[in-house]
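Hello,

I think I submitted the glutamic acid job twice by accident. Can you confirm which output corresponds to this input? Input:
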Amino acid sequence: MATISLEQEINPWEAQAARFDFAARKLNLDEGLWRVLRYPSREIIVHFPVAMDDGRIEMFTGFRVLHSQARGPGKGGIRFAPDVSLDEVRALASWMTWKCAVVNIPFGGAKGGVICDPRKMSQGELERVTRRYTCEIIEFIGPEKDVPAPDMGTNEQTMAWIMDTYSMHMRQTVTSVVTGKPLTIGGSRGRREATGRGISIVCDEALKHLNIARDGCRVIIQGFGNVGSNAARLMSDKGYKIIGIAEYDGGLYNPNGIDVCALSDYRQRNGSVLGFKGAEAYDSNDLLIADCDILIPAATENVITSRNADQIRARIICEGANGPTTAVADEILADKRIFVIPDILANAGGVTASYFEWVQDRQGYFWKEAEVNQRLESIIAESFDDVVRYSEAHDVNNRIAAYMLAIDRVAFNIKQRGIYA
Ligand code: GLU
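Support: Only one job matched these inputs. Its output is below.
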């Protein structure tokens, strides 16, 4: 790969495009289809006012990008963060297209975001931002058009507000306009834990594939939000040993294993994992390069880059976050023979359960949790198998295999539908 600056390396859109181009070339993708799939099909930018608690009027900027609807309605989360940018949302929207195709569910890819800092806003301010943003993009979302979900900085409550705002405008309750809702208003059992559960399933499959025992397998997780904490809990129940947790404000390390339930309780009470007695304080960046069997980056983009990839000592990297590894770091990890379970497979449990939620809302019939979990398990395990078989058949790494599988599926649908002109 040509030498590129760190700024270019950590641009998520460039990271996505580099993998897409490589996989498309390997697939011998038709040049016209390459042009169709390389860029998003719709990019919306909205600037809107919100009255803050102190009476000031503040302007906010929001995005909603639809990358592809070739396989079904757009699908993907909405992110509230101070550093959201159009390039990031574009990349995340494309990743949603590939992710839905890897797990073979009938959605395209989309993503949204609002530049704001949810940690510094009151519930009232968050509600007003959410409702006004929803209103600004209202004609572009809908159960058959584009179905948002939670992502960084948003949660079940945010989805409830979006559902309510949309429903008020439609003059009827439309639960299937968003997924990741609270259980009592059209949410699905098992959705909240689904991304973490998916991670635990692909880790199980990777261990079987590599012939490594699960009992006592040492895991370090970056991020203790919805994804990281659920992965930690489910995996420690299965016999994995969670030896490190890296959070944005500091990390924890205990070679004998951290009591994940006690840590969750502690974080609930104190708002941070720092000061937890059941482990020693540890630098979060050092945890990424500490000795372990599985490293799970489950926080944000660009944490494994050309700067630290060669120091990583994990045998397996399982990407709970979207885009945690840069394209340059991919090559370094491949040289080190680290088995990478790429984001578009590893964290696809969330959108898979979102699909179940959308189906249940439209059926008006809700499944038992065991049914959700069992269907999730079979889709994720099968997708893992598909990706690994693809990688062996085409002699490429798992990430490129996942992209190839996804691009192939999306391109096939576009060919079948034809180009409307
Ligand atoms: N934001 C999650 C993701 O990146 C979930 C998307 C969804 O459920 O639609 O996969």
